[in-house]
Structures
1.
Amino acid sequence: MREIDALTITNTVKKLCIEANCHLSCDIKNCISACAENEPWPTAKDILNQIIENYEIADRENLPICQDTGVACVFLEIGQDVHINGNLNDAINEGVRQGYSGGFLRKSVVRDPLDRVNTGDNTPAMIYYEIVSGDKIKITVAPKGFGSENMSAIAMLRPSDGIAGVKDFILKTVREAGPNPCPPIVVGVGIGGTFDKAAYLAKKALLRPIDLPNATPFYADLEKELLEKINALGIGPQGFGGQTTALAVNIEHFPTHIAGLPVAVNINCHVTRHKTEVI
Amino acid sequence: MTIKIHTPLTREKVKELKVGDSCLITGTIYTARDAAHKRLKELIDNDKPLPIDIENSTIYFVGPTPSKSGQVIGSAGPTTSYRMDDYSPDLIKLGQTGMIGKGKRNGAVIDAIKTYGAVYFGAIGGCGALLSKCIKKCKVVAYPDLGAEAIHKLEVEDFPVVVVIDSHGNNLYEIGPKNYLTQNKAE
């Protein structure tokens, strides 16, 4: 049994919160650059170039790429041969607290959805645990902005709706979101499982680098087809028109019940942030 | 072509702005988002005075990140505007002429824009680091307890925006994609 101190978790989460918010990952940067190059609509091209200038400033000056530094979504894959000394939940939240204050990040969490008083330190984090084999812990911090989160949707389709129904629902969700989630967007899709599992898969799909297609060829093809269909909608960067509405569609899937076909769409903006470290 | 405009934004200035115009704003603007708008609405409903001069004012829907030492403000890009739709018409009625945000507005806001002569600008969402460079001064003028959601008085210089809904109700979110698709089909 390998022992890991809770303090190590706190320090890692703190670091990842700051890095994720100030430095966009290469897969997103490369994709935005390529889209700017290929975009035929002048207004759209101009916006994409400003988006590039923005993340370059953020990189250089260690500034948050976006003022919505999000709710901290923290994903942990914990090896079953690890023992953590100390309280794991507290350690993660302490990391978020230190990261958001030390990194000059915005505190965007309210203590109760109805009384809406800000907690002042961006805690609690949204924590997702998975137990895996081995003696390591993989921690991913994915700050999630709510402009795009609010445009997300879930549908409990009928099995008879099939693949056509799935495609229609995804396209409808993106079309209705229009300019609101800050296009160009990344579309996370979860298909299968249960009501909550589909939503979890959609969020998890956003963690996968956008230059890495689904490992199953069928779903990789579906991702490609949906991306083309979304970019044919004409919404464009910021909704002002253009070819570049989405940077990628990432799909995760899971077995489901004979009676069901859950589909969840979790939309992310062009500031799709996640940083990972393995302890 | 880029149009340079100075605040306060009089109705005459507003009328000259057309959907799709790129503008650079210089002058005083105020920040307010969900929580501050809710408080302003409560004041209006109770016939109490507002903490800002609303006549010909421009409100930027933003909650900036905290500033580091030596910085005027942290990252400061627009937030999604439809959450202010329940509040904007009352403020426009009282004299507000400019709104800066991103995303769609509802029919009630568009009606108020047309009736009273206002304009809805879009700034680029997700470009908070870039936009912060155009903010030269920043001071909290109301509701400091709200933190990032407090009302800040900003002095901006050449702050880049696009006219999304002009005073006639023309809407770039409808026109822009339509024009692109028409052109694309033609080619």
2.
Amino acid sequence: MTLSVVALVATVAVGIGTYAMRSSFIHALADRDLPPAVREALRYVAPSVMAALVVSLGFGGSAGVGWAEIAALSVGGVVGWRTRSLPLVLVAGMATLWALRAAL
Amino acid sequence: MPIHTDVRRGIRDVIPVLVPVVPFALVLGLAIAESPLPNLVGWLGSSLIFGGSAQLTVVTLSAEGAGLAAVVAAGLVVQTRHFMYSAAFAPVFAGQPSWFRWLGPYFLIDQQFALTSLRVDDPPDSFRRYYLTVGLAFWVVWQATVALGLVVGPVVPGEWSLDFAVPLLFVGLLTAAIDSRPALVAAVAAGAVTWATLGVPNRLGIVLGAFAGIAAGVGASRR
């Protein structure tokens, strides 16, 4: 198979698989009541996945992790906790990163 | 026709989420343009998969000559966290019409889940309008920006590190999702386990960390 055919078939397959994952439980459980214990567990999906994404995206890349990145994410966390404003989190975090990189 | 409040809120909320996505989409477009694959084949993933990391995985691995099974497996593993979004939204979608239960999951990317999970207590009509506004806005900008990246390449200088805005964005969404002490325990546990499993390939540590976080949250809520 040529590279293009592999890429095209893989794209279609991963696309179908992704939709299947995203719709799986929505369709399987749509008309059923979930047990209270499961509902309770599902409440912690959002904070858990967000924290996992922060660590994986922030520190799992090929680029080295320095104190500037850790400080920027911490500043973003404090600003988000105090203000609940995404634009402020982005501005404060990026400003911290740029300032520390310029200073260090 | 006046713009509905839910639509307005959706647009207002999605704009800060879109900002860090633009450099990512441009880089993805550039990666496709620089790969030996035809641009159209690479770009199709933007709509067929609608998930940047899986699309990038498929483009990179198939350009390197990996076998079909390996490319598909790696692409799907990257996406496994979507099972959790689907499970978390099952009770929310249960009160929605059937057409929305079919269409909605297509838009269920990380940012979509993070933003709309803050609105699950809204009335079903209101939630649906908000969800579709955020999803469509994201979808249109994503398709257009990946295409732009194909054509113009990197317009943003690398030393700005705008890609760092992506984890930063999730920090902001994380603080919004921590609404109780068990939720905080869940986040800390998930972050720690993801950190400990950073060496696991295909970002599978996200799934391991998430499961640890959910377990810790349930444990903390039972105290």
